[in-house]
Design a protein that fits this description.
single chain; 134 residues; alpha+beta; endopeptidase fold (from Nostoc punctiforme); 4 helices; 19% strand; globular
Length: 134
Amino acid sequence: MRRSDWQSRLADAIKAAREIPFCWGAHDCATWAFDVRRDLTGGEDIAASWRGRYRTALGAHRVMKRLGWDSLEAAGRDLLGMPLPSVLQAKRGDLVLGGTDPAFGVCVGAKVAFVAPDGLVFISLSDCSLAWRV
């Protein structure tokens, strides 16, 4: 269940993501997306199981393996349950998996915001593969 002020929290999260440099294990695609989920719902900190436990892409991969996930899709299904039947059903604030090199992002309408080494990037929702309701 989303908080009543979820829309302003989403706007604040996007603004902050533009200003915070990418950092593996602290401000990367998965950590940021799951932080947004927590902030929009007031729910648990799902990212706590990996936050701060790696500092590189290879380290992230190793932590995922230790947590029992062979892919980000497996992590999403384990942590968030079954995805929506179609990624195009995602609404603002929902979590999305997409991109050429799959990453977690947050739906902001027809686009999805992703934290990347180059900063906050946006891709079309139609170029994503899976989505979960927040």
